[in-house]
Design brief:
By secondary structure, this protein is mainly α. Helix content is 79%, strand content 0%. The chain has four helices and no strands. Helix 2 crosses helix 3. The longest helix has 31 residues. The relative contact order is 0.14.
Amino acid sequence: MKTYIEERAVEVANFIISSNATVRETAKKFGISKSTVHKDVTERLTKINPNLAGEARRVLEFNKSERHLRGGMATKEKYLHQHTPSVQKM
């Protein structure tokens, strides 16, 4: 494995752990795909630093377990901020 990939995998894991970031947030921060984030944490990092991989995986699993709640909150916020058309009286 190339050195820059190993370094990125470690940086990605440290970012996830320190900020409790989601896969999407991490991918955006590092300019990589969500698939690459998953591969870095689940496959590559396991070979480089298994302890760090385990910590990062715990954060990602926690975020995954809460994603249905986050989606519901996002939808709620969307509809709370929409303007309702005023009804004209005749």
